[in-house]
Amino acid sequence: MTVTAVVTITHDRDAHLHRQRVGLAADPPDLHVVVGMGEAPRLTPVPDAPPVLLLDLPVPDSGLPLAAARNAGAAAALHAGADLLVLLDVDCIPAPRMLRRYRDAARTAAAPALLCGPVHYLPPPPPGGYPHTGLADLAPPHPARPAPPDGEVVPEDRLALFWSLSFAVTAATWTAAGGFCEEYTGYGGEDTDYALMAAAAGVGLHWVGGATAFHQHHPPARDTPARVAEIVRNATLFRRRNGWWPMTGWLTDLAARGAVEFDPGRDVLALPRPPPVSAPRVSGTPHP
Questions:
Q1: What is the pLDDT of residue 218?
Q2: Can you state the angle between helices 225-242 and 248-256, rounded to 10 degrees?
Q3: Chain centre distance of CA 257
Q4: Less Cβ crowding at N or C end of the chain, within 10 Å?
Q5: Are 221 and 201 in contact (CB under 8 A)?
């Protein structure tokens, strides 16, 4: 019998977490591990929701410990006896068949794999919030990722497409891949780094049709100045660890807006230098 644990990391997303828990109640896992970063999430009762194990991780000055929080949540789930881990972003509402499709794919996989389901990015919620059904009608799957037909599992060679929004691994695969690199703090880079480490350990990447999640709307994090500094730091760390620049679409867009200096041909990524401060002008006649 498969013991399934969903691992969710969160910071200041109590309403999104509540809607995720409502979604999980339709096909509950055996355990829901919720890792609060710098806070204890407030939970309100949800009928038929799975039991919750709450963790609280301190936040360093460098930013939210996304990588470390995922590792801590996975470790707690494994300690509780889980043999299938589903890491689900706090903004994601699972479709009713999501966990079932992940279980099916994990059971039939011929080799260790990162199993990723399609994600639909929802528009802002209507008055009264998102409906409990019909979310797929509000937005199509993300166009930059494959969305196989329900029940199909499709291998993927493009490791940079991996995302931690919604993915599943067996306990053995998680142990083989070694978890996320905790040098990453704040936003960006740790997903692709993890996929590369997993591939080096012999773990493939597959897309799972029907393991669908719906991403609740929020403004793009990379538009926040503090997140831009984190992206620059994490992209530089990724370049040092792996020899190439990640997130080139984001970095090129940020460079076009003047938010960063990015020239991959010269191997340059930096925050813009502040303009020099001119010395104050002194008026009046100088004394002899």
A1: 82
A2: 140
A3: 24
A4: C
A5: no
Residues 75, 5: contact at Cβ < 8 Å?
no
pLDDT the model gives residue 284: 52
The angle at the Cα of 112, spanning 32 to 80, to the nearest 5 degrees, equals 30
Whether the Cβ atoms of residue 189 and residue 63 lie closer than 8 Å to each other: no
Cβ–Cβ < 8 Å for 49, 21:
yes
- Could you tell me if residue 224 is left (phi over 0), alpha (psi between -120 and 50 degrees) or otherwise beta? beta
Domain residue spans of the chain = 4-218, 222-270
Q: Output the pLDDT for position 202.
A: 96
Residues of the chain whose pLDDT is less than 50? 286-288
For residue range 24-72, what is the model confidence (pLDDT) as tens digits?
999 999 999 999 999 999 999 999 999 999 999 999 999 999 999 999 9
CB 217, CB 271: distance < 8 Å = no
Distance of CA 249 to the CA centre of its chain: 17
Per-residue pLDDT tens digits for 124-135: 998 988 998 999
pLDDT of residue 269: 97
* Alpha-carbon gap, residue 145 to 158, rounded angstroms: 10
Residue 34 CA, chain-centre distance (Å), reads 14
The C-alpha atoms of residue 148 and residue 145 are separated, in whole angstroms, by 10
Say which residues have a Cβ less than 8 Å from residue 34's Cβ, sequence separation at least 6: 8, 9, 10, 17, 41, 43, 52, 53, 54, 55, 73
Query: What pLDDT score was predicted for residue 273?
Result: 78
**Start-end of H helices in 145-201:** 171-177, 190-200
Continuous H helices in the chain: 14-24, 66-79, 98-108, 171-177, 190-200, 225-242, 248-256
